[in-house]
Amino acid sequence: QVQLVESGGGLVQPGGSLRLSCAASGSIFGNSVMGWHRQAPGKQRELVATISSGGTTNYADSVKGRFTISRDNVKNAVYLQMNSLKPEDTAIYYCNYRRTIRVNNYDYWGQGTQVTVSS
């Protein structure tokens, strides 16, 4: 099992910045992909950004150029720096840890942290 604990959410004005953190613990081994997903009220959960153990990143088009994902493999942590925030970024942000063994994906999720962008 893998446990994920997020922090860093909050209320910010449009154009502001927030930094989310996620610490993983438990059965951490091998290669993995960590990332952030978000779910706004009445909408499906969507991918925001991912980063592999080797540092390869992937971003949703809606956040490219504004958000930056990074990872510390020693601390087993992943971060999301969010700049130029917009009201449409308001959502619960979930940290994800995915381990792939052969063809099977094993996903673990944090409890979520609320991000609200509003004036």
Written account of the structure:
A hairpin with a 2-residue loop joins strand 9 and strand 10 (104-109). The mean pLDDT is 95. Strands 2, 4, 5, 6, 9, 10 and 11 form a seven-stranded mixed sheet that branches. Strands 1-3-8-7 form a four-stranded antiparallel sheet, with no helix packed on it. With 119 residues, it is mainly beta. The protein is built from no helices and eleven strands.
CA-CA gap between termini: 40 Å
- According to DSSP, the number of beta strands is 11
- The number of helical runs is 0
Radius of gyration: 14 Å
State the major sheet. Answer: 7 strands, mixed
Residue runs with pLDDT of under 50 for 5 or more positions: none
Query: Order of SSEs, N→C?
Result: EEEEEEEEEEE
> Helicity, in percent?
under 10%
Derived from helix and strand composition plus strand pairing, the structural class reads: mainly beta
Task: Name the features.
single chain, 119 residues, mainly beta, seven-stranded mixed beta sheet, globular
Task: Describe the structure concisely for a colleague.
With 119 residues, the chain is mainly β. It is 0% helix and 58% strand.
List the helices and strands and how they pair.
Elements: E1 2-7, E2 10-12, E3 18-26, E4 33-39, E5 46-52, E6 57-59, E7 67-72, E8 77-82, E9 91-101, E10 104-109, E11 113-117
Parallel strand pairs: 2-11
Antiparallel strand pairs: 1-3, 3-8, 4-5, 4-9, 5-6, 7-8, 9-10, 9-11
